[in-house]
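Look over this record as teaching material.
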Amino acid sequence: MDDEEARTRLLDAAEELFYRHGIQAVGMDRIRTASGVPLKRLYRLFPAKESLVTAYLERRDRHWLTSLRTAALTPAEPRARVLAVFDWLADWFTEPDFRGCAFLNAYGELGAAAPEVVRVHKAELHALLADLSPDADPTLADRLLILTEGATTVATLAPGPEPAHRAREIAELLLAK
């Protein structure tokens, strides 16, 4: 196994374990066992748990935002693009392994010690919502971010598409103004 394969296996294991059980509840030995990567190589690639947590969140940020961006940019009409965000959320909320927002979960566990990627992710999400907003309305983007985050939080407690559907209804009202 080369370093790239080892890195991928470690990040796959970290993502599954950190997202399912929490960052603080999962030790490096558990990551090593789940990945099949020797401990020595794990620490060579990720010298501290913090570096693995950051890499996991950075990779999740790229995948999550790419998927959302693709779904939101598929419709041609700006209003439909905004509403596509909530349709995408509804699909995400019904995934069997859905455990809420990995970035808010990380911040909830680590507080101010959370990696900077947590704040960067939220800024990127806000920027995407601003880009989708008709006339690039920053106030609308702020409101859409609150709807997105609120729906995600509610779905964390009661998984299913309903929080996204309710948030979509509110977004429709905001877009009608």
